Amino acid sequence: MRHVIPICALTVALALPAQAEEDTGQSLMEQGAELFFEGLRKEMEPALEDLQGLVSQFGPAMQSFFEEMGPALAELAGEIEDWSAYEAPEILPNGDIIIRKKPEDQHEEPGQIEEETDGATEI
């Protein structure tokens, strides 16, 4: 019985601070998550500032590009039905960009694999 009283007193003493923290409206999990995200924000702050600098540097140029080329790219996208029928774009030495169509023998529709008709089944 002598051991029970100190254990109860210790339990009550430890429970009081936890109860006081819950009265602030945040549980320990919420406080931990808040601290975690605060630390993450501080770690990411330099990288985000660098990214913001890149956006301010390249943003106007990209906006101008999309204003000028946007309608032409939209028209091109509307005409091309199957992008897999074309090779990757290629930049020529004079600055022209070409997109070549793949040869017909290389271009196969997905799911249209030719099967052998000799009746044999490969295992």
TrEMBL record:
Residues 1-20 form the signal peptide. Keywords: Signal. Residues 111-123 have a biased composition (Acidic residues). Residues 101-110 have a biased composition (Basic and acidic residues). Residues 101-123 are annotated as: Disordered. This is ATPases of the AAA+ class. It comes from Ruegeria denitrificans.
